[in-house]
Predict the 3D structure of the following.
Amino acid sequence: MAQKLKDTILNPILKGNPITVLVLGICSSLAVTVQLKGALVMALSVIAVTGLSSFVCSLLRNTIPNRVRIIVQLVVVAMMVILVDQILKAGEGTYAIDKQLSVYIGLIITNCIVMGRIEAFALGNKPIPSLLDGLANGAGYGLILVIVAFFRELLGSGTLFGFQVLPASYVPNNLVILPPFALILLGCIIWAHRAYDKSLQEK
Amino acid sequence: MNTNSNVYTVIYTTLIVVVVASLLAFVAMKLGPAQQANAKAETLRQMMSAAQIKPAEELYAMSNADILQLYADTIAEAYTIGADGQPNGSLSVEKGKIELIDKLKPQNKAILAGAAVTLPVYVFQSGMKVIPIYGAGLWGPVWGYVAFQPDGRTIAGAFFDHESETPGLGAKIKDESWFREKFVGKTVLWSESPAFRLEKNAEAEGSVNAVDAITGATMTSKGLNEALNVWFKAYEKHFNREEE
């Protein structure tokens, strides 16, 4: 049991990472990784949404009519996304970040990771493991987001969390700021991940 | 229980939608005041940055309460004008009851349609007058605040914002302080058309009413240029009247 729990939590972060292995949630990881701060808030938002949606759907799993289960899941996920957006907008410190992330918070609902985990895990498991599975998948997504944002902010603006870290003589690279570079970076991360974990390579 | 029967499905979906909707309505109601306070403080920050009260970075580091206090301390009066440029109402500047016209989209529509407008003018104690501008960028709306010296033609400062312009390109209108600083000291030539120009290589001609557009952000610059001129036109009678 303990081993299974450990797998539930660690697998989505490492071996079954939703971005680098399942290649889900790519769009938003290109869009919100220009700055670390935004990426971090986005990561936390997705963790909250995946965790809570999985939890609620798991609670309802025996009552959901099979024919409309996707719609019911969508309603639950949409509710969580709106809640997160509203709370970010209401916080004095998070208002500016919410503005900067603009539509991407709302678009968490279209993130395949959320629906994917509900379909694949939450509907067949008890609420607590489902919650952990959701949180861990969100964390796996967030981890990659933060790694990509780290390089993009460092090379694209010469800053980290808005603080200047590279000398002023560094000329920010404009390509790094544009979405295509995030894709290149993501490719490099997937490459490194597969080189490190040989079991991920296809025979 | 048969969870696949039609009756069950209909009742179940109705129930879940009603529950979720009421929950969201409740949350929106509870958080509404905090969200509006944030939006208001944001507008005040942008106005005060344009009016050169403090640099934008400092204003963004201040808490909402401090921003409201600073505004109450530095504002002289605020009023609205109609299409004829005449003042037709006043806006409270008292702390705790600060009134703003911050819904710029309907006003923009009214200006473009030639309908009746209610446009705000915020007069700071320094004599500077701050007016808003609003228009369409590349991906979404762009807006901003422009502060005029008491002479009604020299720009004292400006601040621009946007909803979803491209980071690193169009977003520079907000992110790069050098861009808004370019407007300082420029003059709006009310009698000319256009009264102000944000165009490629405009500065090289040495005109007092021109600022270079941002390289790589053609559509954002174009939209901002249009926003500036449409709104300047709407305020033209107000500022011209004062020169008499």
User: Anything to note?
Assistant: Chain B touches chain A through 30 residues (CB under 8 Å). The helical segments of chain B are 6-50, 56-61, 64-74, 104-113, 172-175, 177-181, 218-243.
